[in-house]
Amino acid sequence: MHLHTLITSSLLSLTLAAPLTKRFVESTPWRLSNIRAFTASPGPTGVSSITFHFCDTNAGLELETECSRYLAPGSGRSPIDPDTFYPCANNTVGFKYTGREIVVQRTYIDPSVGSPTTAEFPATWYVTAGGQANTTFEVASDEAGSWAYERELSVRITTLIA
After folding, report:
1. In the chain, how many domains are there?
2. 136 domain-assigned
3. Fewer CB within 10 Å: C terminus or N terminus of the chain?
4. What domain of life is recorded for the organism (predicted)?
5. What's the CA gap between 80 and 67, in Å, rounded?
6. In 10 A of CB 18, how many CB atoms?
7. What predicted TM-score, i.e. pTM, was given to this entire model?
8. pLDDT per 10-residue tile (average), the chain, 162 residues
9. What is the reported pLDDT for 96?
10. How confident is the model at residue 116, as a pLDDT?
11. Does any domain span residue 74?
12. Nearest Cα to 153, choosing from 82, 67, 84?
């Protein structure tokens, strides 16, 4: 009986001592706004680019940052690059532009992921969330190049890797 009481008491103490950590949840889609893609005509000064504003309104994870990719002047190439993620101004956010969609990923610290930490063994647990949205650009062109514009896209979070 004494052993049972000791074990029960010890388990209760451990349970009370371990604080519950709220897990962050990416339930609200991210918002991309003022999306502009420009492909410069061949020539020495044209700069192709893609730019947009990123906004995450999920509780505890709120973040806004500018995202952009500029190609070298005179390259005459499109900003489409389906194989490479480019960092945003806040480099916890990155994107790639495939021409038909914008793929976005974001990394953040979530202390509720992984093993519990102690003062002797602190741990930092990173989570990477990601999603993509199809573009439906309004397009215009002239001698300088072609512009594609979209006012806003909603990016549903479809992957969460811890």
Report:
1. 1
2. yes
3. N
4. Eukaryota
5. 14
6. 9
7. 0.80
8. 42 37 72 97 92 95 97 91 97 97 93 64 78 96 95 95 83
9. 98
10. 60
11. yes
12. 67
**Phi and psi at residue 94, to the nearest 5°:** -140, 160
CA distance 102 to 150: 12
Amino acid 112: pLDDT: 72
* Structural domain that includes position 91: 31-161
Rounded CA separation 129/27 (Å): 11
In angstroms, the CA 117 to CA 120 distance is 8
CATH code for position 69: 2.40.350.20
* CA dist., res. 145 & res. 8, Å (int): 74
Question: What is the dihedral angle through the alpha carbons of 92, 96, 102, 108, rounded to the nearest 10 degrees?
Answer: -20
Structure tokens at 139: 């397009």
